[in-house]
C-alpha cells in the first residue's frame, strides 16, 4: 500500500505526536502534522489511552497511509474489526511506561464488536486496554491466537476461577465488575489484589461469593464450580470452567 511520508526529523530523540494529551506519566507532546483532524460533529469519537511505544509502532507501520496518528489508529482498528482471523485475547493487561491520550474516531460497528469479544472471552469491560491489545495484534499481522495451557499453582487456579466467576456475573447481569464485587460483599481492592492473597484470604473471598445471590458456588475441596441456570445446575471442574466459552 502506498504511504505518505511523515517527516520525523523535527522530533529529535524523543518522539512527539500530534494532538496528544499527556497523562501524569507522559512527556509533553508537540505537533508533527499541520493537518487538522476531521470534524467530530455527528461522529463516534472516544478518548483512549495508549502506551507511547505502541504509538511509535503505529506511526512506523506500513498498514496505513494516514497523516495523523488519530486517523491511523482508526484505520488499524477497522482492519482488526474486519479481520478473518479471530481476535481472542486472554487478558487486557496494560504495559508500564509513558502513556498518551487521543480522541479517536471509532469505526462503525466497533462497539458491538467490542461488547461481543469481551463477553465471549470473559474480559473486563475496559475499552482503552481492549483497543491497545487489538492494535498490537493488528500490527503483528492478525495471527491466529493459540490456546495456551499454563500450569497454575493451587492459589493461582483459585484466583483465576474467582475472577472468571465475577466476570461471568458481570456479563450475564450487565453490571459493572465493581458493582458486582461490592454486591458480593467485597471491596474493590479485595478483587484487584487477588494475586497478593494467600489461600486463607482467597477462601474468604470464595465464601462471600458462595453466599451471594448470584448463583455461582465454588467448591474448593472438590475443585468444582456450580453454576445455577434457570432449570438446572451446571457443574464444571476448575480447568473446564476456565476454558468454558459461556456466551459462545
From TrEMBL:
Superkingdom of origin: Bacteria
This protein's name: Uncharacterized protein
Origin species: Vibrio parahaemolyticus
Amino acid at each position: 500500500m502506498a504511504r505518505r511520508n511523515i517527516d520525523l526529523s523535527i522530533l529529535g530523540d524523543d518522539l512527539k505526536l500530534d494532538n496528544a494529551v499527556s497523562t501524569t506519566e507522559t512527556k509533553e507532546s508537540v505537533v508533527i502534522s499541520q493537518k487538522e483532524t476531521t470534524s467530530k460533529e455527528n461522529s463516534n469519537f472516544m478518548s483512549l489511552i495508549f502506551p507511547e511505544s505502541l504509538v511509535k509502532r503505529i506511526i512506523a507501520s506500513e498498514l496505513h497511509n494516514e497523516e495523523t496518528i488519530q486517523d491511523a489508529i482508526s484505520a488499524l482498528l477497522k482492519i482488526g474489526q474486519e479481520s478473518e482471523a479471530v481476535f481472542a485475547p486472554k487478558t487486557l493487561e496494560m504495559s508500564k511506561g509513558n502513556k498518551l491520550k487521543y480522541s479517536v474516531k471509532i469505526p462503525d460497528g466497533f462497539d458491538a464488536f467490542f461488547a461481543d469479544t469481551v463477553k465471549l472471552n470473559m474480559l473486563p469491560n475496559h475499552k482503552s486496554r481492549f483497543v491497545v491489545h487489538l492494535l498490537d495484534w493488528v500490527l503483528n499481522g492478525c495471527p491466529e491466537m493459540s490456546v495456551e495451557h499454563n500450569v497454575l499453582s493451587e492459589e493461582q487456579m483459585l484466583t483465576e476461577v474467582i475472577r472468571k466467576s465475577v466476570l461471568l456475573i458481570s456479563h450475564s447481569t450487565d453490571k459493572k465488575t465493581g458493582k458486582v464485587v461490592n454486591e458480593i460483599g467485597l471491596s474493590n481492592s479485595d478483587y484487584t489484589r487477588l494475586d497478593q492473597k494467600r489461600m486463607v484470604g482467597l477462601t474468604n473471598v470464595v465464601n462471600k461469593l458462595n453466599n451471594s445471590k448470584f448463583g455461582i458456588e465454588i467448591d474448593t475441596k472438590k475443585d468444582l464450580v456450580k453454576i445455577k441456570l434457570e432449570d438446572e445446575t451446571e457443574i464444571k471442574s476448575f480447568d473446564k470452567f476456565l476454558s468454558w466459552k459461556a456466551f459462545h
